Amino acid sequence: MEAKKVAVVGGGLGGLTAAALMARGGCAVTLYERSKHLGGRAQTSDVEGFRFNLGPHALYRAGAAMRVLGRLGVKPQGGIPGQSGAAYALRAGRLHTLPRGPVSLMTTDVLSLPGKLEMARLLASLPRIDPDTLAHVSLREWLNTRLSRDDVRAVIATLARVATYCGDLDALSAQVAVTQLQLALEANVLYLDDGWAALVSSVEAVARDAGVTLELSAKVDGVVIESGQVQGLRMGDGTVRAADAVVLAGSPGDVSRLLPEDTVLAREAAESTPVKAATLELGLSRLPRPEALFALGIDGPWYVSVHSAVAKLGPEGGAMVHVMKYLATPDTEATEAELEAVMDVLQPGWRAHLVARRFRPSLVVSHRIPTAKSGGLAGRPPSEVPHVRGLYRVGDWVGDEGMLVDASFASAESVERALLRHRHEEPRLAVGA
Ligand SMILES: Cc1cc2nc3c(=O)[nH]c(=O)nc-3n(C[C@H](O)[C@H](O)[C@H](O)COP(=O)(O)OP(=O)(O)OC[C@H]3O[C@@H](n4cnc5c(N)ncnc54)[C@H](O)[C@@H]3O)c2cc1C
To answer: What is the pTM of this model?
Structure first.
């Protein structure tokens, strides 16, 4: 049987993974990436010897990405944060103990005594909650009905925000927040040695070994369709590349631009509200307060973490720190001064040790908030485009499993299942015909 020709558009972790899985399943795969390098948002830049991810990146150890990476034989290297050093809650511009375990829960002053008891009860019951029963419930509604105290609601909202990157309690489905909190409790996260570019290189190597052809600086301009069936891709230079199946691994807007006549895809793009953040990366020759490694805002959307405390991300003795503001609505931005002020609270005097820095006022963390209104994860577009035969998509806005990069990996796996199923069905049809 001739190998099925598959074209993948997008060389981030989602597209690369889909390409690797399908090539290993016997398809002839070509991947097209418009930029000069692979990785998409999982890129890492070298700035003065420090490895800067595009904002703080953590891999959930019990998530879909680790499952799929395991199938590909990739074992990410790095460290698990939170096992040493101090973690703080930021409130009213001051540091308090962050309640994240039995001891800190008892000693923190961000919760009253009844608040501590209520939080302890919630944390104990969390692993037994079935998140799917909460798909249509907003995080705010869930916090209001499940908890009686405002101080506990504020702490749980903070933990849910760091686990989902989404601070919109009214929009976000409680199913997603609870799932992410369960994942965090079950096995925590990994900060990766050498940044997420190391993961991209590992998946790229698997894809190349499996026979994937990788074309860089290759912008795709359109998907060619005839009688409802994919025929191939139209490239930026006007040429057409034939394909039996096409996998689109960009944003909802990228997908819609490649099929401009398709009103269903245009509507999906218009309905996808992204999760956004402002980020400040810092490389320091040393930390003024070496034990102060992590802080989360309780009364504001702040995050600071010294990623180099557990992962190799810079010169010996130096510190690579991510500061972030979770942005509430798609159109807001943050100023650099706001993020610097957060760093001033955790690490006063840090400017004297500054070696490298990078500020981004607004980045897309994931392309679609799974809202309570749209039924949580099941409300995201499926990986198989139902009305165009041979058309699939992959990304952190696709399918009913996972958030962030876990969704990209899970949707890549579901495209693999669908495509290889069709591949096995076709010979039988041909024999019967
Ligand atoms: C600040 C920040 C923090 C984050 N933190 C985390 C975290 O802690 N944990 C986590 O799991 N995830 C995190 N993420 C999200 C994670 O980076 C993404 O979910 C993941 O990298 C998405 O991979 P992807 O392949 O689906 O998409 P992308 O990485 O966006 O890749 C899409 C690719 O498609 C290419 N493309 C699009 N259109 C075309 C075209 N027409 N022709 C050719 N190429 C095209 C683009 O150039 C791009 O390379 C974070 C993201 C940000 C920005």
So the answer is: 0.96
State the burial class of residue 242 (Cβ atoms within 10 Å of its Cβ: 0-12, 13-18, 19+).
exposed
Cα 44 to ligand 1 centroid, rounded to whole Å: 12
Provide the token pair at 189. Answer: 């996260």
Question: What spacing in Å lies between the alpha carbon of 426 and ligand 1's midpoint?
Answer: 33
CA angle 323, 364, 47 (to 5 degrees): 50
For residues 26 and 50, state if they share a domain: no
* 241 and 362 together in one domain: no
Q: What's the length of the chain?
A: 433
In this structure, are 357 and 404 located in the same domain? no
Domain CATH number, residue 123: 1.10.405
Residues 208 and 237 in one domain: yes
| Enclosing domain of residue 333 | 44-80+190-195+275-366
- Return the best residue to mutate from 239, 307, 404, 415 for the ligand 1 pocket (most ligand atoms within 8 A of CB): 404
Per the DSSP assignment, residues forming a β-bridge with 50 are 47
Residue 86 lies in a domain: no
**Tens-level pLDDT at each residue, the chain (433 residues):** 567 999 999 999 999 999 999 999 999 999 999 999 999 999 999 999 999 999 999 999 999 999 999 999 999 999 999 989 999 999 999 999 999 888 899 999 999 999 999 999 999 999 999 999 999 999 999 999 999 999 999 999 999 999 999 989 999 999 999 999 999 999 999 999 999 999 999 999 999 999 999 999 999 999 999 999 999 999 999 999 999 999 999 999 999 999 999 999 999 999 999 999 999 999 999 999 999 999 999 999 999 999 999 999 999 999 999 999 999 876 678 899 999 999 999 999 999 999 999 999 999 999 999 999 999 999 999 999 999 999 999 999 999 999 999 999 999 999 999 998 876 565 444 333 2
As for how many domains the chain has, the answer is 3
